[in-house]
Amino acid sequence: MSLANSKACVAFERHDHSDCQHQLMSAAKALCARRNTRLTRRRLQVLKILLQSHQPMGAYEILAHINKAQSTQLTPQSRKKTINRGALQAVAPPIVYRALEFLLDEGLAHRIESKNAYICCVRPGHQRAAQFLICRGCEKVAELERHDLDLLTDAARVGFTVDSSVVEITGHCADCGKNAS
């Protein structure tokens, strides 16, 4: 498969991002239904936040989005009542980390090790090997759909079972490369 034709490299191309979000959300819901796993309200919220862009997000950045959304959903009158009763509580970090752990386990998200951040998987349910192109300019990340890594072949040849493999390649996307020149 050529890199240019890979739907995984859509992060570096102009595209209808709302369609991208819709397709990945539908695939994630279908995958969870097939596996009989629960895509709870909070897990779904974290997934939607990750789907907002092709840039990785840290857990605390996700947490800030959740808490901001939670506080803006209240009307001024209900906010005053809620705060007076002490019912408005910020979401705690462990809740976000548990949601991220679920998304990682189900193959719906990836952890970008070099950034200590997370990104939505463009191939929901696929958990084997992940390769990423990370632009240092715009910080977008594209997931590659290539499976021909020699290391995986060599590992299998010697009887080594690979649980996960992550390759992160940093550089500049075409747009940022043009701007850097």
Q: Can you characterise this structure?
A:
This protein is α+β, with helices and mostly antiparallel strands and 181 residues long. The chain folds into 2 domains: 18-71 and 90-122, Arc Repressor Mutant, subunit A (Orthogonal Bundle), CATH 1.10.10; 128-180, Ferric-uptake regulator, C-terminal dimerisarion domain (Dna Ligase, domain 1, 2-Layer Sandwich), CATH 3.30.1490.190. It has 7 helices and 5 strands. The protein has a 3-stranded mixed sheet with strand order 4-3-5, with no helix packed on it. A two-stranded antiparallel sheet has the order 1-2. The longest helix has 19 residues, at 17-35.
Give a short overview.
The chain is of the alpha+beta class. The chain has helices at residues 17-35, 41-50, 59-72, 76-85, 93-105, 150-157, 174-180, and strands spanning 109-112, 117-120, 129-135, 141-143, 165-171. Strand 3 and strand 4 form a beta hairpin.
C-alpha geometry: globular
The CATH class of the largest domain: Mainly Alpha
Distance between the termini: 29 Å
Proportion of residues in β-strands: 5-15%
Radius of gyration: 19 Å
CATH architecture of the largest domain: Orthogonal Bundle
Structural class: alpha+beta
Query: How many independent structural domains?
Result: 2
How many strand segments? Answer: 5
Order of helices and strands: HHHHHEEEEHEH
Biggest beta sheet attributes: 3 strands, mixed
CATH superfamily of the largest domain: Winged helix-like DNA-binding domain superfamily/Winged helix DNA-binding domain
Major sheet: arrangement of strands: 4-3-5
Uncertain parts: 1-6
CATH topology category name of the largest domain: Arc Repressor Mutant, subunit A
Number of helices: 7
Tell me roughly what share of residues is in helical segments. 40-55%
Q: What average pLDDT do the residues reach?
A: 81
